[in-house]
Specification:
By secondary structure, the protein is α+β, with helices and mostly antiparallel strands. Helices cover about 25% and strands about 15% of the residues.
Length: about 425
Amino acid sequence: MSKERTSRARSRRTWRGIAGVAAGVVLVGGGFVAANAATTSGDAKKAGVHYPVDKKADGVAAVVSAANAFLNTLDSDQQAETVLDYSQANATAWSNLPCGSSCRVGIQTGSLSDEQLAALKNVLKVALGTGEGTGYEHVLETLLADDQLASAESSGSGPAAPSSDASASADPSADPSATASGAPTGAPPSGGTGAGGGGYGSDIYLMAFLGTPSVDGTWQLQFGGHHLAVNVTYKDGKVAGASPYFTGVEPTSWTADDGTTYEPMAKFRNGMLALTGSLSTEQLAKAKLSESFSDVLLGPGEDGQFPETKEGIKASELSPKQQKLVLAAIHPWVAGVDDATAKKLLKTYARELNKTYIGYSGGTGLDTQGDYVRIDGPSVWIEFVCQNGFVYQDKVHYHTVYRDHTRDYGSEFSFS
């Protein structure tokens, strides 16, 4: 039921077979299929270490088995690119910028063969949530959106790309996505094809295992690219942290050649709209934040920088129905990790609900530059902001981030 994208203005990698995901269709065949990568030759490359695989494993053991199966498709050099030291520097090496491997660690999807991509896909499928429009499915739709963005940019419908790397903007005031620190978090790419540089497209995403995947040690699964950062930390056979998790999208919706309409962040946006839409005039006045936002506050490089004072309206002041809407709004982000862990996290956030605050800035329609909503609890932290489009300049696009005050990176690092 999926359909290959047959029209590409660039000669670049495409992960085909994901067009049916929005309707809840499970990928068939090889899934992420390589468009033009050469299959690794065993004669030309040194064989890598063989990792044990247990197809009957479940829980974290199943994630480890899937990770090992992926590693077994790689030669020794590729394994060295993928399995890295579990360090704070590597763990925090994620971004929402289209900056390829210049701001991330790991092995790039565009360098992998069909077999290797299929194995990588299976790691994500086992590790992430199964909900429609969330978890694994949301990741695939985000990649599809980035291919849509690449196609639009290359066809000339977007702005001319700057000659230097996007992360080197000299004038943050000229970029509506610039943060308070002056670092842009959504600028156009440098126009590279992703071979170590920047650009849009599903071939410019990276996978890394920080530490060796195991059920008795500490390690982190890291997968990301433009508008996506998945960070799941495992400790002693359990998920110790499912954040930071950044997800955004441009365009926010589009219709594919086969007539399928995609809207990767519909559940994320709609949960926030239902919550803010339930607030009375008096409640909205209490929830209004004192600042304006052009991007998320706690994006890449802002680890541990939670505001000292919580702002907005306390959930304890809301009706039981509205409190349920708060938890429903949180769910799509928490559902980025496996279903069992997501359920535990949501129970924790439910217990802390009376001490959780809801705030907004700009408008509540989430359709205008600067519209911003925040959920801030003892543990949970979620931001959703609208920015003007960069390629689709007549539309907004979304940036969001999910963090946890105590569980980011599995509580393994201290930030001050």
